Amino acid sequence: MPPTEIIFSIEESPGGGFQARALGFSIFTEADSLDELKTMIRDAVSCHFDPSEKPSVIRLHMVRDEVIPA
């Protein structure tokens, strides 16, 4: 049964921009802005799945690492 949704973990790239990795699938992409990243994710999902097996929802999970003084 094809998945109904796919989840991507989104992180800021060390050199600037953003990177996205699909959870449970071998899909990775990156871009300079969040809007561009969303486009790249849609393209990557379309390339990875056959049209009949493509998930209907793409969920983005934003991960932010922040260090504060103790």
Structure explained in plain terms:
The chain is of the alpha+beta class and 70 residues long. The protein is 21% helix and 33% strand. It is built from one helix and four strands. The chain has one helix at 34-48; strands at residues 5-12, 18-22, 28-31, 57-62. A four-stranded mixed beta sheet has the order 3-2-1-4, covered by helices on one side. Strand 1 and strand 2 form a beta hairpin. The longest helix is centred in the middle third of the chain and has 15 residues, at 34-48. The protein is elongated and about 50 Å long. The mean pLDDT is 94.
What is the residue-mean pLDDT, rounded to a whole number? 94
Report the β-strand fraction as a percent range.
25-35%
**Alpha-carbon distance between the termini?**
48 Å
| Structural class determined from secondary elements | alpha+beta
Largest beta-sheet details: 4 strands, mixed
Instruction: Give the strand order, joined by hyphens, for the main sheet.
Output: 3-2-1-4
Uncertain segments: none
Summed up:
With 70 residues, this protein is α+β, with helices and mostly antiparallel strands. Helices cover 21% and strands 33% of the residues. The longest helix is centred in the middle third of the chain and has 15 residues, at 34-48.
